[in-house]
Amino acid sequence: MTKDEVKWANPGALGLAGFGFNTILLQIHNIGLMDSTIPLIYGFFWGGVAQIIAGIIDARRGDTFGLTAFTSYGAFWLGLSFGFLMQWLGLITMDLPGLAWLCIAWGIFTGYMTIGAFKVSFVHIFIFASLVILFFLLAAHFFGALPAIIPGIEGIFCGASAVYASAAVILNDKYGRWVLPIGLFT
Asked: Which of 65, 46, 177, 57 has the alpha carbon at shortest distance from 120?
């Protein structure tokens, strides 16, 4: 690297935190432990905008997987939050079968992203595989086959794994050693 080249930081900590904490908050809301709209308000910013920024930085770093994951899930959070905002304003109605099919589409996308995670780390595999399960459990819930507590609890584990990965990126970078292992495959 020449002195004129800029070294980009690892955006994984930001993107994983935005995804993880927003997923946890939304699932806490979904299982009825909070009535607040905070999860979807922060879904616009931390879940949406912050993840898209992380994806753009990954693109600059040449990471197609990171670009696709962070910008896609950032767009997911923006779309979901915007949909609920439009519903709260009385402009649209988000029907349950529509949400179920949305979850199925995202489950399929996340399925092939899980295959890509096998080239990253064990923690990434866990995050993506648990997200596939979450999307299909949510689809079953929206179709009326499951109570919200089942995908809610599973989603908390999914979000917590992303929070762990975010913490690992930060701590491992700052301490220059593996403080929190993620099971790299390289």
From this structure: 65
